[in-house]
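Quick one, tokens below:
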């Protein structure tokens, strides 16, 4: 960041209740401002505190087996039978495994035709086992049957397509305009779009923040999203100290914050943001899991990716796999911070399937750390 105004804005977002303080030139006519807020003043509190333990099971991914080589995987999901689907993005394919992570089949390839991927980035399944792949490179969500046979496409124009499939086949989409900035104004920054199975808009809901200065509305509202088994929707913001929960009908249930050290705001040496969150999931008990940063990046920890003459160039120490930089914060279904679980490795995303947690190291290993959840 290049000016003090930007730092003040982000400081207000991170340290406060999620909204910038005047005179930061951020307009906040948000209808949710006076709604239900959970202020977690201290860690590990709650009427029914949890004692969650994670037991390491194995690494998922193997550079010596073609069926297990993941090249920048972008998502993991499961069907009702527990079979696991990995979106192997840079290999332009979906890899399917048994619940015990034994290889079953693969489908997809690079291209622009039906059933082909250009830049896949999100995966989910419906109750019938059909597989949905967000492919912004081809401006669509592609749908496959459980065997991997192409069924149809849903047109979605977005820089990033982030979605979940709801009961009945409706599609909950993170508002693409949060990336593109089109149609946003001070009193209209919808966080979600609900689409029918054909891609037609049913409604928008959720209220973001409208910024007139850097990081602007598109940057300040960058977020992670997920849903639970009851189709409640969740959002965790990258640069706001705010975790939101909405009902399937779009009602704002709560927003929660928690203490965040002020020094996490900005890495002045590198002149970069330090994001708050890098993973979001909900377990079978409807507890909310958020992977948060515990400190700023150091220079030797950063992996850089660039393209020269169409060829990807990767720089940085990819052998550095251990760190104290991340922790999981577990919140109750009501937004109360229950527990903090430190991690000892990098995390680019996480997913929870049954009682198993998959933590992705995308940039270094291209593999998942697999943990089993146990409750005391």
């Amino acid at each position: 960041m290049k000016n003090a105004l930007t730092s003040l804005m982000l400081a207000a977002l991170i340290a406060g209740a999620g909204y910038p303080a005047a005179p930061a030139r951020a307009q906040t006519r948000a209808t949710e401002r006076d709604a239900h807020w959970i202020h977690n003043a201290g860690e590990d509190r709650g009427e029914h505190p949890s004692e969650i333990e994670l037991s390491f099971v194995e690494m998922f991914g193997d550079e010596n087996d073609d069926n297990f080589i993941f090249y920048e995987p972008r998502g993991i999901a499961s069907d009702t039978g527990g079979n696991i689907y990995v979106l192997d993005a840079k290999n332009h394919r979906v890899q399917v495994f048994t619940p015990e992570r034994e290889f079953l089949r693969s489908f997809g390839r690079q291209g622009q035709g039906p059933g082909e991927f250009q830049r896949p980035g999100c995966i989910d399944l419906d109750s019938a086992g059909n597989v949905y792949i967000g492919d912004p490179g081809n401006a669509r969500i592609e749908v496959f049957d459980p065997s991997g046979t192409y069924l149809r496409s849903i047109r979605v124009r977005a820089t990033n397509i982030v979605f979940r499939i709801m009961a009945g086949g409706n599609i909950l989409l993170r508002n693409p305009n949060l990336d593109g900035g089109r149609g946003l104004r001070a009193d209209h920054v919808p966080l979600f779009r609900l689409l029918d199975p054909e891609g037609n808009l049913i409604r928008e809901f959720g209220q973001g923040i409208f910024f007139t200065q850097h990081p602007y509305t598109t940057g300040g509202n960058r977020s992670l999203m997920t849903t639970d088994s009851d189709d409640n929707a969740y959002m965790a913001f990258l640069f706001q100290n705010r975790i939101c929960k909405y009902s399937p009908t779009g009602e704002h249930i709560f927003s929660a914050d928690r203490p965040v050290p002020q020094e996490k705001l900005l890495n002045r040496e590198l002149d970069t943001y330090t994001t708050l969150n890098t993973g979001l999931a909900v377990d079978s008990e409807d507890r909310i899991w958020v992977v948060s940063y515990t400190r700023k990046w150091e220079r030797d920890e950063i992996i850089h990716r660039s393209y020269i003459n169409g060829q990807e160039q990767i720089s940085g120490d990819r052998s550095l796999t251990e760190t104290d930089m991340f922790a999981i914060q577990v919140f109750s279904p009501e937004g109360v911070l229950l527990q903090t679980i430190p991690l000892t490795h990098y995390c680019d995303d996480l997913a929870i399937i049954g009682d198993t947690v998959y933590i992705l190291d995308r940039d270094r290993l291209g593999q998942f750390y697999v943990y089993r959840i146990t409750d005391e």
